[in-house]
Amino acid sequence: MNIVSLLTPKAKVYTISTKMSVRQVLEIFDANKFAILPLLDEEGRYISTISEGDLLRFIKKEGKLDLLELEKKSILEVDVYRPYSYLKIDSPFEKIYKLSLEQNFIPLVDDRDVFIGIVKRKELLENLHR
Questions:
Q1: 3-state DSSP call for residue 53?
Q2: Is 91 exposed, middle or buried (0-12, 13-18, 19+ CB in 10 A)?
Q3: How far apart, in whole angstroms, are the C-alpha atoms of residue 96 and residue 118?
Q4: So what's the pLDDT on residue 123?
Q5: Where exactly are the structural domains of the chain?
Q6: pLDDT tens, residue by residue, 61-79
Q7: Backbone angles phi, psi at 109, to 5 degrees
Q8: Which residue in 50, 110, 52, 34 sits closest to 84, CA to CA?
């Protein structure tokens, strides 16, 4: 199976940046109804994922719901409870399949660790069913 055919390219994936504030990320989650998003650095390299749960735990720990205060907090201050693992675009299909059993999507990177897109578990399973 050609994994590139299952790739949702970076241009079609909502991502968040290490330069964003907690408030900005909250607004992206709210506007787009996502539960988890890839976090990229300034050069587009994959860093981790941030989930709604990570944000809720951060707000609880901070004890503040003031959006002005959350604007001052960097997304890098948020602890990630369960980061998604990533794979290289040329990873064997077996690795991609096994990781899809644990994650809703698999971030894929090139040989410089630059994020190039995701493979969604749903699309992978639909393709295997054909």
A1: helix
A2: middle
A3: 11
A4: 86
A5: 3-129
A6: 988 678 888 999 999 999 9
A7: -125, 160
A8: 50
